């Protein structure tokens, strides 16, 4: 069964938003261990940039794999 475009983007956004929260917290804990001190605002901005990239990546990959599935059916 194939997934709709709306379903693909909803999945990509949900997955990435959860990842954003995990990554933001991990950065706050891990960066100082490597001597990197970044402000909360800059950490958030970097997270937003990477979140946009991740949503696009997840959506495109989901559509590509969905296309493979649809062609086999």
Automatic annotation (TrEMBL):
Any Pfam family the entry gives: DUF7220
Keywords per UniProt: Membrane, Transmembrane, Transmembrane helix
Transmembrane segments: 12-34, 40-61
Superkingdom of the organism of origin: Bacteria
Name by which UniProt lists this protein: Uncharacterized protein
Organism per entry: Paraburkholderia antibiotica
């Amino acid at each position: 069964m194939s997934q709709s475009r709306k379903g693909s983007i909803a999945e990509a956004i949900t997955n990435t938003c959860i990842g954003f929260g995990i990554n933001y917290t991990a950065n706050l804990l891990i960066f100082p261990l490597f001597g990197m001190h970044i402000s909360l605002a800059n950490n958030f901005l970097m997270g937003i940039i990477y979140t946009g990239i991740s949503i696009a990546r997840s959506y495109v990959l989901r559509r590509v794999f969905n296309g493979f599935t649809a062609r086999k059916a």
